[in-house]
Amino acid sequence: MEEKEKTVAQQRREALLNQPKNGYDRLSAEDEAAMRTYCEEYKRFLDAGKTEREVVDEVVRLAQSKGFVPFVRGMAVNPGDRFYRVNRGKAVMLAVIGQESLAEGASIGAAHIDSPRLDLKPSPLYEDSELAYLKTHYYGGIRKYQWVSIPLELHGVIVKADGSTVKVAIGTGAGEPLFTINDLLPHLAGEQSKKSLGDGITGEQLNLLVGSRPFKDDEGSNRVKLAILDILNEKYGIVEADFISAELEVVPAFRACDIGFDRSLIGAYGQDDRVCAYACFAALMDIAIPKHTAVCMLADKEEIGSTGVSGMKGAAFDTFMSDLCDAQRVPLKACYEHSFCLSADVTAAFEPNFPEVYERANSSFINYGMGFCKYTGSRGKGGASDASAEVVGFVRRTMDAAGVIWQMAELGKVDAGGGGTVAAYMAERDIDTLDAGVPVLAMHSPFEVTGKLDCYMTYKGMKAVYMAG
Ligand code: MN
Ligand code: MN
Question: How many Å apart are CA 113 and CA 127, to the nearest integer?
Fold first, then answer.
């Protein structure tokens, strides 16, 4: 059929207006097939790692299978070498050495692998009214009412008095017990229901139900607590005091799954920010020898401000980079000033149920691809790294050249709230940095939702950054 000649107005519209189409109207058959495979692997990755430690273990396992070896200070560093270094079991850095010297800079993808959750307190176990509970202290920005009346698992490590470490992952295997935090029945919730959403459930009410059966043939108090400790002692060889030196995390028991009749979405816990962490990591696994050294940084502690030895403010990243630079006799600062970083962290997808907190023209939308944010922050960009026009321009060109479907967005409307990422801490190192990531619905809830197209495009975008000239 012969195409009608376009009017001048139509031609000018196409040339001048920015009118993005839904990603599914732009997706090639080849990309669609790759997207399906990628998302199946991503869901498997989510189920394998529900804590930062488990993600590190899974990343190392996968990296080793793709030829990555631990980087030890003093090793030679040559083009094509594939290295990784684990920081205290809770963060991991990987690199594929490029053809050019590190003096020409590195292409960095940085994401975080910690997620909002409930940590156990140092003295958590108690019995009340012949029911046993574990006290928790929430980690990161949670809405407390979302964590009651759902199935929960317990993951982490316990360091015993003798220094040995026990790994715990209760609820992952088939038929294993789960835990829960009880809410009030509506029949008796009259007063609670009058409270605001933020006050309805308090932090001190987030107590995990872990048992009810008393120790038999015992006349003492705390018989249920004693029976629970007896089970833990038999299974893990621990005593109550060992909780003091433990890191135990309560996480949702949901498996990652497809959402929707059309299976176009993924529902899972911890997609902030494992959806970007997986994209950064999977893209690095899949590249051959890049021009510039490609680096994937998977950080801990972003949800509480990137603090501590395993957070992005910590020195471990600098030490890793400077060890690589030393091998090529390059000053770290010379590498940094020529480097580029995509700070890959999720952003808030427009949710038509709550349009009042978004500004449509500057929101990210599900199925519109990888989302870029020039700045994050709150109250007038406070705390943002605010990338330069030149940096955004570089990323636009790189994405378009690689056929990546992408969008530009802010996290919510002005003064509706805000958020931060590791971007500012990369920028403080003298590294040009831009925020980028997957738009998420119900972010920070126990069950977050992403679009498969956006997940895959973020992988494709990361690959483009690693391979950029
Ligand atoms: Mn995040
Ligand atoms: Mn977050």
Answer: 33
Chain segment 358-379, per-residue pLDDT in tens: 999 999 999 999 999 999 888 8
Q: How far is the CA of 139 from the centre of ligand 1 (A)?
A: 13
Rounded to an integer, what distance in angstroms lies between the CA atom of residue 84 and that of residue 282? 14
CA distance 459 to 280: 7
pTM here is: 0.97
CA 279 / ligand 2 centre spacing (Å): 16
**Cβ contact 276:458 at 8 Å:** yes
Q: Using one digit for the tens of pLDDT, what is the confidence trace for 368-409?
A: 999 999 998 888 888 888 999 999 999 999 999 999 999 999
State in Å: Cα 420 to ligand 2 middle: 8
Residues in the chain: 469
Crossing angle of helices 271-285 and 452-467, in 10° steps, is: 40
- Ligand 1 centre and the CA of 123: distance in Å? 29
How many CB atoms lie under 10 A from the CB of residue 206? 20
| Pairing verdict, β 370-373 and 432-437 | antiparallel
What are the start-end ranges of the E strands in 205-346? 207-211, 246-252, 257-259, 265-268, 293-299, 340-344
The enclosing H or E element of 127 equals strand 117-128
The single-letter DSSP state of residue 220 is S
Strand partners, 299: 112
Query: CA-CA distance, 14 to 23, in Å (whole number)?
Result: 17
User: How many angstroms separate the alpha carbon of residue 273 from the centre of ligand 2?
Assistant: 7
